[in-house]
Automatic annotation (TrEMBL):
This is LacI family transcriptional regulator. It comes from Paenibacillus flagellatus. Residues 2-56 form the HTH lacI-type domain. SMART domains: HTH_LACI (SM00354). Pfam families: LacI, Peripla_BP_3. Residues 5-32 form the HTH cro/C1-type domain.
Length: 329
């Protein structure tokens, strides 16, 4: 495998000159630059990216830690984040934490060793102090970690209100909120909390007392959640409207209703949250609260880039949500 010394020797320049060409530092004539690139092509020379990162003190890599890439919301989020990162010349290192403390800590250590320029936290089960001591630009997605770490979120509280408002307008008198338990020390700050608060507020202002059902966290057995939902509807046959904290959970509710012989939307109406692709694929198509995932991703990368350049950024970045009505209401 050719080395940088081999490129320098054939091009008739110093190793320092080749390094400057690779890292675009200092004045190099176009003739010399073209010569170095020509030799690199002839030798099939591949620069050592880690060495370049050390030289430039910048790796152009951003770490992204999410709880589950298999979840439709996080897969769409990762897609948009990668797109906007690439637009700014950055590459993403994707880390799937499963909301496991050991895995999350291990990924953070790995990202530091690989000298990433910043980290996007879409999963946070470690103590907040762990993030404050990283000495890296950080953006948290959808949950506040600390007053010193900017975060990007949608208006979860208003989303809950919009969902309740739609169910009430459609005649629901016994609404329920269904969400999945997360676990971890930051549960109180998680997105489901704001959605629940908005939902409860709207219901109570209408004189209604909503029920809550918390599904088991990280349940890999889909039939377990299905049985839990079927049992819930059997125990509470009066439930005529459901707000699910995500479109995925809403899809599970649809399946449970189908098995329990509940007609949608005649017997029960359902509203999800996110408006990921699954919302348009289930039958009936899902009414949901839309998060502007693309715009939120663009802002996240913008906040990262500005921090890397040493600029001040706003700590709270909240995006409005919109209600999308489809066949389940």
């Amino acid at each position: 495998m050719p080395k940088i010394e081999d490129v320098a020797e054939r091009a008739g320049v110093s190793v320092t000159t080749v390094s400057r060409v690779l890292n675009n530092r200092g004045y190099i004539s176009q003739k010399t630059r073209d010569k170095v690139y020509q030799v690199m092509k002839e030798l099939n020379y591949q620069p050592n990216e880690m060495a370049r990162a050390l030289f430039r003190r910048k790796s152009n890599m951003i770490g992204l830690i999410i709880p589950a890439i298999s979840h439709p919301f996080f897969s769409e989020l990762a897609y948009h984040l990668e797109y906007y990162a690439d637009q700014r010349g950055y590459k993403l290192l994707l880390c799937n934490s499963d909301r496991d403390v050991v895995k999350e800590r291990g990924y953070i250590d790995m990202l530091k060793k690989n000298q990433v320029d910043a980290i996007i936290m879409g999963s946070s089960v470690l103590d907040v102090q762990h993030y404050l001591h990283l000495n890296l630009p950080i953006v948290s997605f959808d949950r506040p970690l600390s007053n010193n770490i900017p975060f990007v979120t949608s208006d979860n509280f208003m989303g809950g209100r919009l969902a309740a408002r739609l169910l009430i307008e459609k005649g629901c008198r016994q609404p329920a909120f269904v969400y999945r338990g997360i676990g971890g020390p930051h549960h109180h700050a998680l997105l489901a909390s704001g959605r629940a608060q908005g939902f409860d507020r709207e219901c109570k202002e209408a004189g209604l007392e909503p029920l809550h059902l918390q599904l088991e966290p990280n349940d890999t057995d889909e039939s377990g959640n299905n049985k839990e939902l079927i049992r819930f509807f059997q125990e509470h046959p009066e439930v005529d409207g459901v707000f699910a904290s995500s479109d995925v959970i809403a899809a599970e509710v649809i399946q449970a209703c189908r098995e329990g012989k509940k007609e949608i939307p005649a017997d029960i109406k359902i509203v999800g949250y996110d408006d990921v692709r699954i919302a348009s694929l289930v039958s009936p198509r899902l009414s949901t609260v839309k998060q502007p995932i693309r715009q939120m991703s663009e802002r996240t990368i913008e906040l990262i880039a500005k921090q890397i350049e040493g600029e001040d950024v706003p700590m709270t970045n909240t995006f409005p949500v919109t209600l999308i009505e489809r066949g389940t209401t």
